[in-house]
Amino acid sequence: MAIEITNVQKPFRKLRKSLKNLPKDPPPDDVHNLRTQTRRIEAIVAALTPDQADKARRLLKAVTPVRKAAGDVRDMDVLVSNSMTLSNGRGDDSVVRLVEHLGGIRMDSARKLVDTVAQQRKSARRTLKQYSKMVENRLRAKKRGGRPGCITGRPPVDAVAVTLNLIAELNQWPKLTAQNIHPFRLKVKELRYILQLADNPDTQLVEALGEVKDQIGDWHDWQELCRIANQVLNPNEDRPLLKRLDEIEKKKLAQALARANAMRTRYLANKAVTGSGKQLQIVPFKETVVKSAVRLAG
Fold it and tell me: What are the tens digits of pLDDT across the range 95-151?
């Protein structure tokens, strides 16, 4: 197995296209794609070119503001969608006021996103093209046989090292709680993005990581919706809705914890991880997940 060059090039190409064609009133799908591709590129930069710090900084300086601005809009799109599911179909005033508040934030965030893209478009698209070409040239220069379109050599070895470090970090993670499960999710996303660079990734592991990512993300969205609702709604008049939101948030957290722990048991640890800090019990990797990392090296 090895890294598939087209898997590396794809997010660069898609992000350049998204930056060029982003409409003045970007729809949810466009915003989601913009955010996802920037996340993928950040993971690729860390995995494939750890020795190119200056070039990486230039690239991230151009695309990170776009990712953050897109994230603000995407968050509101999800929260509005979640809020709409709370309506009882009879003009629920609490839901209406909550959606109106979120909609206002979404409009402001969308304007900021459009402005940010306008400011960063030229430098971001140029830097993305240069970086993509640089990565491709380095990978092809290190090629040592293998199928056409796949590369092996030092960069994949770097990717394996980064991947194993991520696995080790997840493997040694303390007991999952509401306080640390979201940072856990960010590491899961990064690991998943890197594993997807392989020409034939372990689909079961990639899917398991995706399910954990989505489940935790769903909880985090409801948690944020609860936070905002408690700020803008009346604790007395809107008590039924606030109570329902609290119940949903707790249910989503339980589901996220269960999914994440099941994935850890199956792929990361041979036995439960206990303790924290200096008392953390370090356990060996599962063979399956190590093999998935090594696939990147060919």
Answer: 999 999 999 999 999 999 999 999 999 999 999 999 888 888 876 765 544 444 444
pLDDT digits (tens, 9 = 90+) for 78-90: 999 999 999 876 6
Q: What letter represents residue 36's amino acid?
A: T
For range 164-187, the mean pLDDT: 92
d(CA 295, CA 160) in angstroms, rounded, equals 8
Q: Are strands 3-4 and 150-151 parallel, antiparallel or unpaired?
A: antiparallel
DSSP 127-184: HHHHHHHHHHHHHHHT--SSSTTEE-SHHHHHHHHHHHHHHHHHHT-----TTTHHHH
Q: How wide is the angle at C-alpha 2 spanned by C-alphas 284 and 289, nearest 5°?
A: 20
Give pTM, 2 decimals. 0.83
